[in-house]
Design brief:
It is a single chain. The protein is of the alpha+beta class and 361 residues long. 43% of the residues lie in helices and 19% in strands. The protein is built from 13 helices and twelve strands. Strands 2-1-5-4-3 form a five-stranded antiparallel beta sheet. A five-stranded antiparallel beta sheet has the order 7-6-12-11-10. It starts with 7 loop residues before the first helix and ends in a 7-residue tail after the last helix. 30% of the residues are buried.
Amino acid sequence: MRLDDSSLLASLHDGMFQQPLWHDFLERLRGRLQVLYAGLTFDPPHETGLVALHAGPVTSLNLGNIFTDNDLQSSKPRRPMREGRVYALGELIDPDDAARNAWREEELLPIGIEDLRAVRVAEESGVNAWLCCGGRHLSSSATSLLTALAPHLRIAMRGFVALERERLRSSLASEAFGRLNFGWLTLDAQCRILDMTAHVDQLFQRNGLLRRGRYDRLTPASPDLDRELTALVKRFAQDADARPHAVNLSRDPRMDMLVAPFRGGSVAAGNAPAAIVYLSGDRSSQADRCEQLVELFGLLPSEARLAWEIAQGIPIAEAAANLNLTVETARNYSKKIYAKMGARGQAELVRIILSSVLAIA
């Protein structure tokens, strides 16, 4: 059976990017064989249960009943499908299996599915997929076509599993970046944003210091910083070994930016990235953090303000001046702070605060 005389293969390999998945492929398969039903069933990675896709005027069939042992109880075990071999409906339902024969009589025959062909493929990670077609009378061409499609389906499922794995990793990484109030974005030589993590927009909105401007350009609110950023990115576009540059954008709430040359090539990219910008910001103001310290550790408001200053690495004398306290008063406060928080000094105080829920608040 020739596969190059239709768009079946193209739609099969493109199907993982469609919504619904593999819709065009199943429609083309049904039209090619002139059958009532074409379906693709698989057990997706990282999830429980089967995904059942179909094309045709009939409703989706619960084919997990004959492909797996998940749904119907039977006194006899279901015959396992050998990978790559095409099976007819009569081979998949044992004559003595009352439950599956009843399902065939009640669900398949009333909608005109008298015959069926199915093939199973197994992707190397363990994901199984079943491709099938059903109608009144199926010829040997259905068996030939499913046999020819099986190795291509295996490759398509391998790509789908790899894509789903990367989607999961990306989702987990994005969630972690969000909890750490961290994000990144890549810029071309004209400072246009090419890609960014999902939480960068939230960092933009939090303080208005940066925004996505006209033509997707990263635009700082400060004209001086805009000129500095433009010069940096132009230099990085010409010299990938140039030193990264760090900028404090705001102290309360804190937001920092590190601009570095982009050193990772990509054959899939359109405009080549010239720079990568890392952003780290705090969700809360200093006043919010002090209030949270009061709630977490039972500090007085005055003690909480001093604790937050000390946690930023500020010397006790400078912290006292910032808070209009005498050094002696600040030292007395610090003793009470360490006792309430169970810290034996400034280093341990910083560790306790950074390992508390304040790190993700």
